């Protein structure tokens, strides 16, 4: 499974719902979107209600327009420096006694926009520490992060569990690194370069 990759483009559209559409919406009882707006949308005047295509009064779908933020001078280009992260594999490091002091090291590759790949090795506890620091530093941005992979005391060294954790940590780290809110923060840089 490939890691989640999010291009540096944003979709914007403006929609006006027709009365027939409103009635159909009430009949299907769709759950409403969360009213929590990620902070980087607020600064750029975006709103979740404008983030999808819908019918206008004339019955035609409004096209989604994309903004290219890869130009040298764009604000997003200055903040974002990574394009993808993969967790390649893991190594179980044995403790001094059987079952005591053992831990897992995750080997990660960060693909950067300017240079070659950057290799990092981190323990689960370091990922967890980063998550806690991000929550403390950006309490308003918690909703823009996926759920952090939970701990497991019983199956923490089982290959099947470790493979699932590898995918979950990879997805979580991609969402953090490719978020302009977190990408330039000292918290993230400290995690990567310490």
TrEMBL record:
Compartments reported by the entry: Endosome; Vacuole membrane
Residues in PX domain copies: 84-194
GO CC annotation terms, alphabetical: endosome membrane; vacuolar membrane
Membrane topology per record: Peripheral membrane protein
Molecular-function GO terms, alphabetical: phosphatidylinositol-3-phosphate binding
Sorted UniProt keywords: Endosome, Membrane, Vacuole
PROSITE patterns per record: PX
Polar residues bias (residue ranges): 50-59
Principal cellular location given in the protein's record: other
CDD domains: PX_YPT35 (cd07280)
Region spans: Disordered: 1-63
Family of the protein in this entry: Belongs to the YPT35 family.
Function statement: Recruits the lipid transfer protein VPS13 to endosomal and vacuolar membranes.
PANTHER family tied to this protein: FI18122P1, SORTING NEXIN
UniProt protein name: Endosomal/vacuolar adapter protein YPT35
Species for this entry: Ampelomyces quisqualis
């Amino acid at each position: 499974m490939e890691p989640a990759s999010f291009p540096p483009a944003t979709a914007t559209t403006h929609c006006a719902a027709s009365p027939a559409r409103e009635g159909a919406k009430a009949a299907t009882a769709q759950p409403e979107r969360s009213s929590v707006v990620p902070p980087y949308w607020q600064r750029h005047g975006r709103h979740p209600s404008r983030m999808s295509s819908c019918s206008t009064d004339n019955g035609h779908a409004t096209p989604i327009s994309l903004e290219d933020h890869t130009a040298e001078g764009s604000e997003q280009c200055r903040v974002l420096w990574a394009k993808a992260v993969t967790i390649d594999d893991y190594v179980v490091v044995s403790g001094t006694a059987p079952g005591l002091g053992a831990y897992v090291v995750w080997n990660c590759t960060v693909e950067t926009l300017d240079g070659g790949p950057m290799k990092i090795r981190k323990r689960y506890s370091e990922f967890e520490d980063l998550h806690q620091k991000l929550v403390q530093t950006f309490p308003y941005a918690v909703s823009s992060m996926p759920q952090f992979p939970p701990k497991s005391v019983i199956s923490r060294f089982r290959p099947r569990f470790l493979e699932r954790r590898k995918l979950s940590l990879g997805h979580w780290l991609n969402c953090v690194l490719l978020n302009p809110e977190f990408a330039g923060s000292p918290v993230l840089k400290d995690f990567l370069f310490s």
